[in-house]
Design goal:
This protein has 421 residues and is of the alpha/beta class. The chain is built from 14 helices and 21 strands.
């Protein structure tokens, strides 16, 4: 029988094979296969749980636990159950299930209670083809053998799969009004999910519009939302809507992109499926700004280190705001009213390269927003919902930002034949 559990692999959990062997020696449990301190200290929990549940460790036998593949460094919150069950089946203190493979993922208390690890929902490869054991569950989206305590191995509670139907909850919209020009811009950016750069003098509502757009985005599909929730749990910041990440302009390249000796995800991964709001965009370090170019195109970030390559998701909408010079009063095509010298203004603008500017679908200057007519943000949402219904009929799997060129040409050709005859 093949014994499987799960270890941490980037943002998710990947299967690891567990081999258990009894050899003559001092009675103890010895882990092999590059376990981390958390796994090694599980020895004490397993020994205590076995004792309190009425089981025993074999006399004059050393228990070797090998975690395969051997070359990967391993971290896990739920190997306790797999190792304890493997020992009981190997020593015939419990009857092993008559199946080809078994997967187990659960924590053990010192008295042998089986607990569901808090990263249980991060399992990447769902164990649909094998019997799966974990702690006490009431519902799950795949078949589970649920255990209250370790001695329930002989008679686990079978949990049938159910559709959990996880849905996103749109945050409450701000009770504000915007000008007609702002409303039109919001609709285009929110519906098409376009990368947008707001530029202009201070106090013209650039940051407010960026967060309004984030709240007006369309609902994610269930798979996207599940991925976003998984990432938010990894960062310890749960969310019930598409994530909105607003790092400070002093954030380092490592914090934004990710990396480190053992590669960790950065803020662009935390914004996956949602919005990255970069207020005071030109105040970020130029290397931070330029590092966004590849993720904006690819929707992911690849981090290579000696012996490991990690790929983290990073498909987000970039909404950036900036003043065009240090004092903030430089306005294009207007009389020069900046309090600084032209050289300082030029140095500020040159912090962003042409290729990076090309990543923005929309460049919006905030100084012309002076319409006397205003509309509430709530009415914009109603307009967007009707437009989204129309869009779903024509291209249900993509928003405008991600439409391939040939799809756009085909759509334009269809409309030209229909309306321009």
């Amino acid at each position: 029988m093949k014994l499987t559990s799960y270890i941490r692999d980037g943002l998710g959990l990947r299967p690891v094979e567990i081999e258990i062997s009894l050899t003559p020696g001092i009675p103890k449990i010895q882990f092999l296969g590059l376990p981390d301190p958390l796994i090694r200290e599980s020895v004490v929990r397993i020994q205590s749980a076995l004792k309190h549940q009425g089981y025993r460790l074999p006399k004059s036998k050393q228990i070797l636990v090998n975690l395969r593949p051997n070359y990967l460094k391993k971290s896990s919150r739920g190997l306790d159950l797999a190792v304890a069950a493997g020992i009981l089946w190997e020593t015939n203190q419990e009857v092993a299930p008559e199946v080809e493979s078994v997967a187990l993922y659960g924590e053990l208390s010192l008295k042998g209670d089986v607990l569901v690890p808090d990263d249980f929902t991060d399992i990447i490869e769902l164990p649909r083809s094998r019997t799966f054991y974990t702690g006490r569950l009431t519902e799950c989206d795949f078949e589970v053998m649920s255990l209250g305590e370790l001695k329930d191995l002989k008679s686990p509670n079978f949990i049938r799969p159910v559709d959990l139907g996880i849905r996103a909850n749109r945050p409450e919209l701000p009770n504000i009004k915007v000008t007609l020009e702002q409303a039109e811009l919001i609709k285009i950016a929110a519906h098409g999910e376009h990368h947008t750069l707001f530029a202009g003098p201070p106090g013209t509502g650039k940051t407010t519009l960026a967060f309004v757009i984030a709240n007006l985005l369309g609902e994610p599909n269930s798979n996207e939302f599940k991925k976003s929730q998984q990432i938010s749990r990894h960062f310890g910041i749960p969310t019930n809507w598409r994530p909105v990440v607003a790092p400070h302009h002093t954030s380092t390249n490592l914090a934004m992109i990710g990396g480190g000796g053992q590669p960790k995800p950065g803020e662009i991964t935390r914004a996956h499926g949602g919005v990255l709001v970069m207020d005071e965009f030109l105040e970020f370090e130029p290397k931070v700004i330029e590092a966004l170019r590849e993720p904006l195109e690819a929707g992911k970030i690849t981090i290579s280190r000696t012996g490991s390559v990690m790929v983290f998701p990073a498909r987000f909408i970039l909404l950036a705001t900036t003043n065009l010079c240090p004092c903030g009063h430089l306005i294009p095509a207007a009389e020069f009213d900046c309090k600084g010298r032209p050289k300082f203004c030029l140095n500020s603008i040159q912090k962003m390269s042409g290729p990076m500017l090309d990543r923005f679908s929309i460049l919006a200057f905030s100084h012309p927003w002076a319409s006397s007519k205003t509309v509430p943000v709530g009415s914009i949402l109603k307009d967007l919902e009707s437009v989204r219904d129309f869009s779903q009929f024509h291209y249900p799997d993509n928003v405008n930002q991600h439409l391939p060129v040939d799809e756009i040409e085909k759509t334009l050709d269809t409309f030209a034949k229909k309306f321009l005859v």
